[in-house]
Each structure stands twice: as structure tokens, then as C-alpha cells.
Design brief:
- Residues 2-100 form the HTH araC/xylS-type domain.
- The chain is an alpha+beta fold.
- The protein has two domains: 2-98, Orthogonal Bundle (Arc Repressor Mutant, subunit A), CATH 1.10.10; 124-279, Regulatory factor, effector binding domain (Multidrug-efflux Transporter 1 Regulator Bmrr, Chain A), CATH 3.20.80.
- Helices cover 38% and strands 24% of the residues.
- It contains nine helices and nine strands.
- Strands 1, 2, 3, 4, 5, 6, 7, 8 and 9 form a nine-stranded antiparallel sheet that branches.
- A hairpin with a 4-residue loop joins strand 3 (177-185) and strand 4.
- Helix 1 (2-10) crosses helix 2, helix 2 crosses helix 3 (29-40) and helix 3 (29-40) packs across helix 9.
- The radius of gyration is 22 Å and the shape is elongated.
Length: 280
């Protein structure tokens, strides 16, 4: 990760491909982007964008370089697109960055430091499972500025309030509700999230979406505690501790959360995280 960050920082004026960045971390592009997001809370694209706008603001403040030249230097095709991004990041126009006493925002370079973790063992199970079909309701979710961490719990609340969860439970092969992340597009900073059940053969569900989950090898982790806090902690530990400690990496397929019936606010509520894996 440190080598990948150094590569990014040395090439702020270039258009680095994610393949080259991931290679510096000895990782597949998908696994690197997933790891980066889980470790830092932002996507690779968002990090690079914020760093470039930080450097652009510094350059405008201390030099007489034309706004157009600064925009082109940091990868923007036009002054308009640069100005829009600059205003969103700093709250002012690029030209205003030159005014005496103006306040600018700086997004610092991320650094990783080794620390001792893993004070508690992480129990997990490796399961090979054939493909299966799920039926549910889906939304498109953005990872920008942690929007997914807010939108997904709200989506669950909506599905409980409008009766969607009850309808799904009635057509599934069991009462388990599934939360599934799929169609991950890291370059666009978005993915699909579906609240679903494993489908029964021959069920007609026109109001819902039907999706195919491919065969995979899964690492399965148990979450114990009230939602969403407990399961979010498990996700963090999977990427911060489990992946670095094992010879596995993310396979790039859908990720599952399995929610049995029960009181999700209880301190002893148990659910599961399923992560598709491959051996490095």
C-alpha cells in the first residue's frame, strides 16, 4: 500500500491506470480498490482527485500560472470542469484562490503505519457453493464521501416500513434476508445493492429483480451484536486484519450479508458476512 501511494504521489500530473497502481501493491486491481476503500473510507479515484485539487490550489496561491494551464496539468479537459471540481472541493473559484488571506482546504497525503492488531481471533469458515438465484429489490449506491454507509441502512429501513421485507420472506426458500453488493464499478465509484432472498424454483416476482450469483469459494464470518454497527466492524476487520494475515484476496464477485430472523437491535443478534475469495 505504501509503495502504491508513493507511485500515485510521484505521478500526480499523469493519468495512472488502476492496473499500474495495483501492481505496485502486488494485488489485482479489484482487490486493491476494495482494500483501499475499506482501509481509508474513500475510493482510489476520490483520493487522487482530492490530492490533485489540493496541489492545484497550492500552485494557484503561490504562482501566476494560468488557470487553464493548472487545469490541464492536473488532468482536467477544460477550465469549466476544473472550476466545478475546484469549487466543490474548496468552496471558491480557482481565480479566487489567488486573493490574499483566502482559506483553502488541504487533503493530506495518506500514510500507512504498521500496528499490532488482532487481539481477538477471527473465526471463519471456507465454503464452496454452487451458483444460486436471488430475488429482491435493488438500488444504485455511490461510494463517494461514504454515501454507501448512509444510504444502505436507510434502504433497509425503507424496505421494512413499506412491507418489502415481509413480501420477500414469503417467497424465499427460508426466512433469511440477504444484503448483496454487486456490479461494483470502482472507476465510477458506484455499485448495486440488493435486499433479497434466495429464490424458490418457479416463483413469479414481477415487482422484484432476479439476479444470478455465480459459483464461488467464500470466506464466512459471524457478526454478533446490534446492527449496523456490529457488521460494519466485521467488514473492517476482514479487510484490515484477515486479508493481510492470509494467502487470500478478493475474487471480485458479489459480497453477501445473511440476516436471519430476529431482533437486529439485540446485543446477541447473529448474522454473517460472505466474501468471495481466491488463493493468491
Amino acid at each position: 500500500m505504501k509503495d502504491a501511494l508513493e507511485l500515485i504521489e510521484r505521478n500526480m500530473e499523469e493519468q495512472l491506470g488502476i492496473e499500474e497502481i495495483a501492481k505496485a501493491a502486488y494485488s489485482s486491481p479489484f482487490h486493491f480498490q476494495r482494500m483501499f476503500h475499506m482501509l481509508t473510507g474513500i475510493t482510489v479515484a476520490e483520493y487522487i482527485r482530492k490530492r490533485k485539487l489540493t496541489l492545484a490550489a497550492q500552485e494557484l496561491a503561490i504562482s501566476s500560472t494560468k488557470v487553464l494551464d493548472v487545469a490541464l496539468k492536473y488532468g482536467y479537459d477544460s477550465p469549466e470542469s476544473f472550476s466545478k471540481a475546484f469549487r466543490k472541493a474548496h468552496g471558491i473559484t480557482p481565480s479566487a484562490a489567488r486573493e490574499p488571506g483566502v482559506r483553502l482546504k488541504a487533503f493530506p497525503r495518506i500514510s500507512f503505519h504498521l500496528s499490532l492488531k488482532g487481539d481477538k481471533e477471527m473465526d471463519y469458515t471456507i465454503i464452496d457453493r454452487a451458483s444460486f438465484t436471488v430475488i429482491g429489490k435493488s438500488i444504485q449506491v455511490s461510494t463517494k464521501d461514504g454515501e454507501n454507509l448512509r444510504r444502505i441502512p436507510k434502504f433497509w429501513q425503507e424496505c421494512f416500513e413499506d412491507g418489502t421485507s415481509v413480501k420477500l420472506s414469503s417467497i424465499g426458500i427460508n426466512e433469511n434476508l440477504l444484503g448483496i453488493c454487486l456490479d461494483m464499478e470502482h472507476d465510477k465509484e458506484q455499485f448495486s445493492y440488493i435486499i433479497a432472498v434466495e429464490g424458490k424454483a418457479g416463483i413469479e416476482a414481477d415487482e422484484f429483480t432476479t439476479r444470478h450469483i455465480p459459483a464461488a469459494t467464500w470466506a464466512v464470518f459471524t457478526s454478533v451484536g446490534a446492527l449496523p454497527g456490529a457488521i460494519q466492524k466485521v467488514w473492517g476487520k476482514v479487510f484490515q486484519e484477515w486479508f493481510p494475515a492470509t494467502g487470500y484476496e478478493h475474487a471480485g464477485g458479489p459480497e453477501l450479508e445473511v440476516y436471519p430472523a430476529g431482533d437486529t437491535t439485540a446485543e446477541d443478534y447473529q448474522c454473517e458476512v460472505w466474501v468471495p475469495i481466491v488463493k493468491k
